[in-house]
Amino acid sequence: MDRRLMNISILGLGFMFVFTSFLTKTVLKSIEKEDPSFTGDGYTSLCIIYGVFALCNWLAPTIIGMIGSRKSIYLGSICYVAFLTPFLWPSNILLYTMSVLLGFGASIIWTGQGTYLTMNSDLSTISRNSGIFWAMSKISICIGNVFVILVLRDKTELNESTRMLVFTVLAVVCGFGTLILMILRPSVDAEDKENEVNFQKPNSMIPKKELKDSMRLLMTKDMLLLSTLFLFTGLHVSFYSGVYSSCIAFTKSMSTNTNQLLGYTGILVGVGEVTGGLLCSILGKKSPRSDSKFSGLSRSTVIIISFLINIVAYGLIFVNLPNDSPFGDSYTKSFIKPNQYLAVFCGFLLGLGDSGFTTQIYNIIGVKYSDNSSSATSLFMFMQAMSAAISFFYSNQFGIYAQLIILIIVMTIGTLSFLVVDKFISI
User: Is 41 helix (H, G, I), strand (E, B) or coil?
Assistant: First the structure.
């Protein structure tokens, strides 16, 4: 295995352990039942996380330029470990404080990841590396939810002792992932380290100039077009990671143990993410350009397939879940009687579609913005986090039907915009 592929594998392995966790809203609801003085809200916490995430993305390129992508990834992972503390020692102040910290950590770990991925890739390996990283990192969803299913077996509520066990284990696993990320190596041989430093630090030591460069990049035609798809990924992530999971847990007419059903759905989301990442890695790894006659799927083809997968998923969710399911326990039915098997299958489709969109975004950033990957990645993360924060804000206000319609409209515009940009990329 060559040095750069080893780096990508270590990066994916570290992310796999760091992100082995499950969703917070239903957990916070169980804490509130134990302690009425605790009023922490999952949607509010997520809104804070993504809001801070969005703002800090403007500073992320400067931080990465100052300390490097590897140290940024490591520092960000520590923030993820710290975020688990409010679930061990519930406190409203601690929850929202750690939400702010996690928002900052997310900005530097993901921008650092995009920069490090680009540094370890070239035109012939960017598809392969994006797919490998995405598949490895998303195994975390499967691991976390398998653990939850085992713990919640024959239990309908997450009591205090069970919660302490779950989050203690998750904290240890997350800490182990942080240790793995400490061994990330430079992307080049020792004699070329100076070139790597120059790659990361063109002007990043000057925050004002870096902000101006990011704004200038944002205002370019292609970046403005891509921004619509960036915004969609944020809406989609917030939907399947926060809204959809809560809807399943709250739809009581679907199963006698919806919390356990939530675990099965999470596993299928992870399987979809991993499957999509592997397919993109295998089918796209030999394609040096999007319109190449060489075998392999182009970026545009993957995007179109992902679009169709999401359309099917959104349609099935529309007919399967009641409109009031995002707000709390629901015993009503939608167009059909809520079906648990259909709900789990939709989780797979949501993960599969997400992997296709995200890997191709990393692909096009690595190809088109290889000389300015930290700024391009930070803009992607800014757009994604901003739209996710907006989504979590209106999740308590809109029923699931309205949210699905918003997703379809933004996805359609974003897909068309991506196809326009990809068509005119000359490699």
Answer: coil
Cβ partners under 8 Å of residue 34, min gap 6 = 159, 160
Cα(402)–Cα(124) distance, integer angstroms: 41
SS3 194: helix
Query: Using one digit for the tens of pLDDT, what is the confidence trace for 85-107?
Result: 888 888 888 889 999 999 999 99
Tokens matching residue 133: 């990283």
Question: How far apart (Å, rounded) are the C-alpha atoms in residues 287 and 85?
Answer: 45
Distance between first and last Cα of the chain: 26
What sign has the CA pseudo-torsion 238, 239, 241, 246? Answer: positive
| Residue for token pair 């986090």 | 385
Q: Show the beta-strand stretches assigned E in 300-347.
A: none
Cα 386 from Cα 216, distance rounded (Å):
19
Tokens representing 57? 């993305």
- Give the H/E segment covering residue 197: helix 193-200
Phi then psi dihedrals of residue 330, to 5 deg: -130, 135
Whether the model clears a pTM of 0.70, i.e. scores above it, the answer is yes
Rounded Cα–Cα distance for residues 39 and 44 (Å): 11
Tokens of 54: 């969005």
- Quick one: average pLDDT of 194-214? 55
Q: Which residue has the tokens 């990841």?
A: 113
Distance CA 22, CA 233 (A): 19
What Cα–Cα distance (Å) separates residue 209 from each residue in 137, 346, 365? 33, 45, 21
Tell how far CA 336 is from the center of its chain: 31
